[in-house]
Amino acid sequence: MQAEDLLLLVSREMPYGKYQGRLIADLPGHYLGWFAREGFPKGEIGRLLALMYEIDHNNLGALLLPLRGKTAPRSK
Q1: What is the predicted pLDDT for the residue at 26?
Q2: Which of 9, 41, 58, 70 could form an SS bridge with 25, CB 3.0 to 4.6 Å?
Q3: CA dihedral of residues 59, 63, 22, 8 (deg, nearest 10)
Q4: DSSP secondary-structure letter at 66?
């Protein structure tokens, strides 16, 4: 994984399939799980889907919030 990959997750859209046009970071977990079971496509899209699957599967989606321009409220 490269640091730029995290930015791509919140800016790259799914190019085909049921969720075409949706940001990779916004793909539902069951769809990512389907790819994990059936096989990720080759190339950059497959690499990004595999990364998003790992983030989703390990409940680490909050890591992407700052990259979307959103941050969790800070405690005082």
Answers
A1: 96
A2: 9
A3: -130
A4: G
Distance CA 57, CA 32 (A): 9
Mean pLDDT computed over 20-43: 96
For residue 71, count other CB atoms closer than 10 A to its CB. Answer: 9
Determine the Cα–Cα distance for residues 74 and 7; give it in Å rounded to an integer.
Answer: 23
pTM of the model: 0.85
> For residue 51, how many other CB atoms are within 10 A of its CB?
19
- Separation of alpha carbons 7 and 38, rounded Å: 25
Using 50, 70 and 90 to split pLDDT, how confident is the model at 75? very low
Question: Measured over all CA atoms, what is the biggest interatomic distance in the chain, rounded to whole angstroms?
Answer: 46
Spatial contact of 55 and 47, defined as CB atoms under 8 Å apart: no
